[in-house]
What we know:
The chain is an all-alpha fold. The protein has helices at 3-36, 39-73, 83-89, 93-139, 142-146. It has one domain: Methane Monooxygenase Hydroxylase, Chain G, domain 1, CATH 1.20.58.300.
Amino acid sequence: xxxxxxxxxxxxxxxxxxLHQALYTLANDKxxxxxxxxxxxxxxxxxxxxxxxxAIQQLEAERQNLTTMLFQEKGVSVVNGTLLDLIKxxxxxxxxxxxxxxxxxxLRVIGQLQIENELNQQLLGHSLEYVExxxxxxxxxxxxxxxxxxxxxxxxSQVNRSIINHKA
Length: 168
């Protein structure tokens, strides 16, 4: 394999791993911000997250390009070749071990990131449920929610007892 392409690929994989670790750190920070309900800080974190995601996408495109060139060099035609494909194709033990190390580390960090993102998603879901419940308490008429009334026995004029006039 072309040593220049391999070294470039190693650099891309190293940077990709660092960016995913930064995303994981942001996800941890986001959890704390969600618990504290600090919306301005959450907005700031989300902007940082978008910048990291954009950089990761650029590195992924570069990785795919380098991988394609390495496959072409070996005379193998592969569309969207993966690191695992490249590891299988490599005959150099040192390159194989280094690629395997990068792949394992990326998988580990991405797994942690997925878990953290799922926790954050659950926190957001609970937050939204709480907000909906709070809004329902302010806008609903509790006597209608808890007491069954036959449709024919309802008074013709009921007083609107909600705090917020949601018809306005």
